[in-house]
Design brief:
Pfam families (chains A, B): LacI (PF00356), Peripla_BP_3 (PF13377)
Largest interface: A-B, 35 and 35 residues
Helix content of chain A: 40-55%
InterPro entries (chains A, B): HTH_LacI, LacI/GalR-like_sensor, Lambda_DNA-bd_dom_sf, Peripla_BP_I
Protein name (chains A, B): Transcriptional regulator, LacI family
Keywords (chains A, B): DNA-binding, Transcription, Transcription regulation
Radius of gyration of chain A: 24 Å
Oligomer: homodimer
Largest sheet of chain A: 6 strands, parallel
GO molecular function, one term (chains A, B): transcription cis-regulatory region binding
Order of helices and strands of chain A: HHHHEHEEHEEHEHEHEHEEHEE
Strand content of chain A: 15-25%
DNA sequence: CTGAAAGCGCTTACAG
DNA sequence: CTGAAAGCGCTTACAG
């Protein structure tokens, strides 16, 4: 039975936990901060009390006693569109998750050479590409790094772009589409590339070709996708199904189709990626759990600050079928 | 002479200020929080010490002693595009400014009826339109409100959209353009409407007409602007100068012009609004000082929390002439 | 009008 | 391995 947690309800403090577990507050603190040298039995007692009382440390108190707040740098590759809805959303979730632990997220701009212009106690890197120079640069300074992407031996998390691309392909194939078009983001970036590769791979397995003329660069923008599709249409390219590597691009694709007199999903089926409600609410798309990716990144960040060994985690995606895909006529 | 302020430099505390001013820390706190009942002379001594030592209160300590952090709700009208770069940037600046004072900015979603879905200790409302229902709704609950926009008798701040629209017009007129096109955002919103009205007003004063056919709704999106202009061009509308109510739309305008074989600024001059570096870096535009608007909003928010009387402030804008405008040939 | 002191909720040497 | 206590930088009754 849960008490209604009013804004004004007396909050559970570390002292409550200590009392409940029959130990001192210092010990509770040690357990919570994973310091070595606590007997397993006491640790368990503490952890049990923590979860029973639903204790959540006060960020301000923590920050104050730590002397200075840890600052987490948020850096997006200059080749990526800094204001993409996905990054914005990701940063919002991440900031909220970090705030709970007394960590501050700071957006750091790029230097002319593309590296972060300021320092921080740890970094989250987004808009990752292979051989991303930022990783080595930060490592050289001994600054912990967490990637929204992936790289061997690093700390990273990402949505399952590979499975997402595959699911989009399978869905379209199941509906009988074989003349497929793919609108990509920046293929130099991991997200776009992984989606593309998995999409094409799944088609190949099914014996369906994806000629170069049907792979269009939409640059992860609505207008980019619109122009690319419109040009393709004018150039005589034909297709009955489209996979766009983001919902914004799916929007552009649909607009281009409509402007050309084609109907969605009557004439052409369209699948997006991300599942951002503000982009076409009837869109069939691959949902990625931004909040979960952000929460995982926050956890990795905290581990990195404690010097724990690197690990990585792939967050599952899910195909959400709505109104922009239909069986081929 | 300023000391290099290392991350590790001993920070100036309220105690240092108290000592320097020859008073107790309690008194310094009273002055800083504008509590009544401090002798003018002592107040001045404290303020002098504060600025001489460049004292900046520690947000965490403040939050801790205040018992619970104040939460500021950030709400954008559902009719506005939540992920517009401008809002994102504004929220970033605002969040940073508030954090310094131990205030937390929380993005709050909309209910189906468009009102904020959660409560907070105070609200910042963006995407304002006339007779905005959110204002009365929050007032009725006694929640302080600050507007990024304007309304009689309220606390508000905004960039000088009116002067911005005028400047865009004057610039184009000075270059000899008289066949002008305006691409608007959502005219139901104040920002778009004020810019439009001022632009048209300035033209009228100069005896230059702006027929309805040359006022296009771009919906504050790149693609919206692109399609609107392209359609106008196909419909035979002619013009040599364009004012787009945002840089994103200016981008779309330029793309549409180029796709139609027109050159910028050779054939057509284009002026944007905002001055976001990521949108066309050679763009002639009206710069608004987002950081300043955000800082002002933060100040108003703090005043509202202290129950001070409402006031409002217009932040000046500035025309930045770059490569997308030229003299009419 | 202002000072001395308690308290906010944590962390971490310091003992033991 | 763990407790008692000091300290982080503020605010605010409580006295005077």
């Amino acid at each position: 039975m849960k008490r209604a947690s009013h804004q004004t309800a007396a909050r559970v403090t570390i002292e409550d936990v200590a009392r409940a577990a029959g130990v001192s507050t210092g010990t509770v603190s040690r357990v919570l901060n994973r310091r070595a040298g606590v007997k397993a039995a006491t640790r368990h007692a503490v952890l049990e009390a923590v979860s029973r009382l639903e204790y959540r440390p006060d960020a301000a108190a923590r920050e104050l006693s730590l002397r200075h707040p840890k600052r987490i740098g948020f850096h997006v590759a200059p080749s990526s569109t800094r204001f993409s809805p996905f990054y914005t959303l990701f940063a919002q979730h991440l900031s909220a998750a970090l705030q709970e632990s007394g960590l501050r997220l700071e957006t750091v701009p790029s230097r002319p050479d593309g590296l972060p212009a300021r320092s921080a106690d740890a970094f989250v890197l987004v808009g990752l590409h292979d051989d991303d120079a930022r990783i080595g640069y930060l490592h050289a300074q001994g600054i912990p790094v967490v990637l929204a992407g992936h790289a061997e031996g690093e700390r990273w998390t990402r949505a399952d772009d590979v499975d997402g691309g595959r699911q989009a392909a399978l869905h379209l194939l199941r509906l009988g589409h074989t003349e497929l078009l793919h609108v990509t983001g920046d293929l130099g970036g991991q997200a776009a590339f992984d989606r593309f590769r998995a999409f094409r791979g799944a088609l190949q397995e099914a014996g369906v070709a994806l000629p170069d003329a049907r792979v269009l660069d939409g640059g992860f923008t609505t207008l980019g996708a619109y122009r690319a599709v419109r040009r393709a249409l004018e150039g005589g390219v034909t297709f009955t199904g489209v996979f766009a590597a983001s919902d914004e691009m799916a929007c552009g694709v649909i607009a281009a189709l409509e402007d050309a007199g084609l109907r969605v999903p009557g004439d052409v089926s369209v699948v997006g990626f991300d599942d951002l409600p503000e982009f076409g609410d009837g869109l069939t798309t691959v949902r990625q759990d931004v909040a979960k990716v952000a929460a995982t990144a926050a956890a990795l960040l905290k581990e990195s600050l404690r010097g724990e060994p690197p690990r990585s985690e792939v967050i599952p995606v899910q195909l959400v079928v709505r109104g922009t895909t239909a069986r081929r006529r």
